[in-house]
Amino acid sequence: MDSRVSGTTSNGETKPVYPVVEKAEDGNLERGQWNNKMEFVLSVAGEIIGLGNVWRFPYLCYKNGGGAFFIPYLIFLFTCGIPVFLLETALGQYTSQGSITAWRKICPIFEGIGYSSQVIVVLLNTYYIVVLAWALFYLFNSFAVDLPWGSCRHEWNTEHCVEFKKTNGSLNVTFENATSPVIEFWERRVLRISDGIHHLGSLNWELALCLLLAWVICYFCVWKGVKSAGKVVYFTATFPYLMLMVLLIRGVTLPGAAQGIRFYLYPDPTRLVDPQVWMDAGTQIFFSFAICLGCLTALGSYNKYHNNCYRDCIALCFLNSGTSFVAGFAIFSILGFMSQEQGLPISEVAESGPGLAFIAYPRAVVMLPFSPLWAFCFFFMIVLLGLDSQFVCVESLVTALVDLNPEMFRKKNRREFLILGVSVFSFLVGLVMLTEGGMYVFQVFDYYAASGMSLLFVAIFESICVAWVYGAGRFYDNLEDMIGYRPWPLIKYCWVFLTPAVCTATFLFSLIKYTPLTYNKKYTYPWWGHALGWLLALSSMVCIPTWIVYKLSTSKGRGEVAQKYPCILWPEGPAQQHYCPRRAGLSPPSPSLHPLAVGEQRPPQKREDWHHFSLKLYPSIHPSDEH
Question: When you count CB atoms within 10 A of the terminal residue's CB, does the N or C end of the chain come out lower?
């Protein structure tokens, strides 16, 4: 086992500067590893390629200038998406730890980054799976010969329900306050929605059973960790592509498909002057790439030390963006067909989020021959897309907790009971969102808990910690040690300058442009609803400054912060007492000397000097300075 560490020697005792990591190719048998690279790649693909690729990206592209939207999207992809994606994955692989202890290993004072990401995951686990409950309900109803959302002949329909059909190029009936059977099925049969968040009402037991089924499936996907998850993803991560291709082929062969695709891609460069377009591009990158959630760190931690995570990350990022692009053709070809059949402009049939999955697409399916078949294909794809993302988030949380308390949870059946506890807790909280007023609660969680502001806030501190405190050059050396060569230098520029600058600017802009949450552009939430939302958002963001204050106030040593910083900024490892010179009774070495001067034997090669980008917070000693 190679545990080579850069460091200093005093009285025969090594004081490492880098965190001690496991580098054995056979891995830590107690913790587990992926059986092969494909399991890792499919698991990450299943996590990042989710519902947002299908129901969010195509709509944002259409709304924000069509093909012109790719300009800000690609800028954010290369300045934020790929760099942070690689940073988190490489961090997990290098430390072989979950998202909390991984940050502790490289910089203890920023351990709060891990706590912040896991608070977001806890909140995400409770509401994201509710979408699966809705999708399962639609999936089961797809087995009917006549789809229940295709007609007005049901007990939940009102006198305002109108079945829209094409008659000589126009609607057969038009009158004020008319509603479609699709909307009434969604609001009156599925949601049974009340008049506001103040009226939660009764629980929809059918949806509760669907939610229970979703959690049972999720539990057994991850109950044995990577051993079970690595096998499940062979199906859950690949089959949605088959469904997407089937829907794409069917969509582009429909009349009106070309018109829909034209609206999807037709460039409108004038939209680029709108700052909201850039904001949408940035938040889509963070949502779609699952960064700042700790999931990539957790999945990367099960890699072998010398796995080429750089190549994997680049390929996965392009796969994710490519899937979003292709999904747009599948969705907008169907919307173009709807537009032609109903005689409505695209703007009136295009939807985003749950509105696309549970209103727009079901409405289109009713117009197709063999509609139950196409409904089954679509909702089965939605279930699989959501399931992957859900159980990986659960695995991320469990990995973080197990690595945080290995003595407690790495015993027989303890991990399984922990997963069960997480599942039961999340299920019980999720039941609130299946009441008559549950949709309003769901919107609060979706708008605030895992909002762009929370993710951007975490990304700012991630890039600052790695690039300016730990050192971009040092982390780049760690990456080179793992993969055997130095990646594209532009990524370091992004870590140091572009990523924190872009994330900070986008974060501030999101605060300035903040608009209170509404439901369906009609219902206005009460003040306490917004207060609840901000509490959810701040519950994750407050972890980082709170942990910094905690470490500063509890670290050993008295006096100025500068006298304490070796204990709270130096990387930690298994032999923790060796990492802080003050704990070992030594004076902190001079911060002006570079840690790579000692202990690293590398092949001679020409490399740029990046170490001046570090704030010199990790001191080390030249050989001549050893005691």
Answer: N
Task: Flag whether 614 is marked binding.
Answer: no
- Residue 131's SS3 state is helix
Neighbours of 488 (CB within 10 A): 12
**Cα distance between residue 68 and residue 70, in whole Å:** 5
CATH number of the domain residue 424 falls in: 1.20.1740.10
- Look up the pTM and report it: 0.85
Residue 385 is assigned to a ligand binding site: yes
Report the distance separating Cα 143 and Cα 590, nearest Å.
Answer: 72
pLDDT in tens, 131-189: 999 999 999 999 998 899 988 988 998 888 888 654 444 444 455 667 889 999 999 99
Query: DSSP of 594-621, one letter per residue?
Result: -GGGSS-----------GGGS-S-S---
The predicted pLDDT at position 193 comes to 93
Mean pLDDT of all residues in 118-133: 96
Ligand-binding annotation for 125, yes or no, is no
Task: For residue 580, count other CB atoms closer than 10 A to its CB.
Answer: 22
Domain containing residue 140: 21-541
Neighbour-count burial of 520, counting CB atoms closer than 10 A to its CB (0-12 exposed, 13-18 middle, 19+ buried): exposed
The alpha-helical segments, DSSP class H, found in 168-252 are 181-184, 205-222, 226-236, 239-252
| Total domain count, the chain | 1
Dump the DSSP string for 69-114. GHHHHHHHIIIIIHHHHHHHHHHHHHHT--TTHHHHHH-GGGTHHH
Residue 91 labelled as part of a binding site: no
Is 53 flagged in the annotation as binding? yes
Q: Is 466 exposed, middle or buried (0-12, 13-18, 19+ CB in 10 A)?
A: buried
Question: What angle in degrees, to the nearest 10, is found between the helix axes of 82-95 and 452-464?
Answer: 60
Percent of the chain past pLDDT 90, that is, above it, reads 57
Flag whether 41 is in a domain. yes
Q: Find the range with the poorest average confidence among 25-29, 115-119, 326-330, 416-420.
A: 25-29
Q: Is the pLDDT of residue 624 over 80?
A: no
Across 335-339, 414-418, 621-625, least confident range: 621-625
d(CA 569, CA 191): 50
Tell me the C-alpha distance between 43 and 13, whole Å. 41
Residue 14 lies in a domain: no
**Residue 320 annotated as binding site:** yes
Q: pLDDT for 387-407, tens place per residue?
A: 999 999 999 999 999 999 998
Taking residues 529-550, report their average pLDDT: 96
In a domain, 481, yes or no: yes
- Cβ–Cβ < 8 Å for 343, 169: yes
Quick one: which of 109, 116, 90 has its CA closest to 468?
109
Higher pLDDT: 561 or 234? It is: 234
pLDDT of residue 360: 84
**Confidence band (pLDDT; 50, 70, 90) for 572?**
low
Using the Cα atoms of residue 608, residue 612, residue 616 and residue 621 in order, give the sign of their dihedral.
positive
Cα distance between residue 143 and residue 145, in whole Å: 6
**Using CB atoms within 10 A of its CB, is residue 175 exposed (0-12), middle (13-18) or buried (19+)?**
exposed
More reliable by pLDDT, 59 or 28: 59
Q: Is residue 180 part of a domain?
A: yes
SS3 of 151-181: the string is CCCCCCCCCCECCCCEECCEECCCCCCCECH
Q: For residue 367, is pLDDT > 80?
A: yes
- DSSP states of 384-409: HHHHHHHHHHHHHHHHHHHHHSHHHH
Q: Is 426 annotated as a binding residue?
A: no
